[in-house]
Amino acid sequence: MARIRGRRSPAAEADRGWSDWSHPITVVTGPYRREVIGNPAEALSFMANRWTAERNDEYLRARHLASEFLRRRTTSAAVRVAFLAAARTAYGVADISAYADGPVADDVDGRPEIDPVQ
Q1: CA separation for the pair 103, 9 (Å, rounded)
Q2: CA angle 22, 19, 86 (to 5 degrees)
Q3: What is the CA radius of gyration of the chain?
Q4: Which residues contact 29 (CB under 8 A, 6 or more apart)?
Q5: What residue numbers bound the domain in which 74 lies?
Q6: How many Å is the maximal CA-CA distance in the chain?
Q7: pLDDT by position in tens, the chain (length 118)
Q8: What Gene3D superfamilies does the annotation carry (predicted)?
Q9: CB count, 10 Å around CB of 33?
């Protein structure tokens, strides 16, 4: 799709904080690899490009909701809950209920962490 000269994309015009989650999610994908997801756009990028687990129904739902959020058709909270459910299934997190409302365990930088080793 060609870009019209002098026009900025809607994403560039949006306020940077319009979709940030109050508690970013840290997904541990390997022994030395952590991904910090702070908003639905980052969740969609992670699922599209760096998701190493099986792409099951929860993954597809989370990815669809993240895409719908960027079209302003769903809420950021719905994307966060769906992403946490998909990450729990894919990376073996035992409990999701506490993650939906806020942080459970703090990492070194004070962010909640999803750890597949639990």
Answers
A1: 34
A2: 75
A3: 15
A4: 35, 50, 52, 91, 116
A5: 21-114
A6: 51
A7: 455 555 544 444 444 556 688 888 888 888 888 888 889 999 999 999 999 899 999 999 999 999 999 999 999 999 999 999 999 888 865 433 334 444 444 444 455 555 544 4
A8: 6.10.250.730
A9: 10
> CA-CA distance, 59 to 39, in Å (whole number)?
16
What's the token pair of residue 84? 């946490």
Residue 6 lies in a domain: no
CB 24 within 8 A of CB 112: yes
Residue 12 lies inside a defined structural domain of this protein: no
Structural domain count, the chain: 1
**Do the Cβ atoms of 114 and 93 come closer than 8 Å?**
yes
As a whole number of angstroms, the distance between CA 51 and CA 30 comes to 11
Q: By the 8 A CB rule, do 26 and 35 touch?
A: yes
2 lies in a domain? no
The pLDDT, as a whole number, for residue 13 is 45
d(CA 26, CA 38): 9
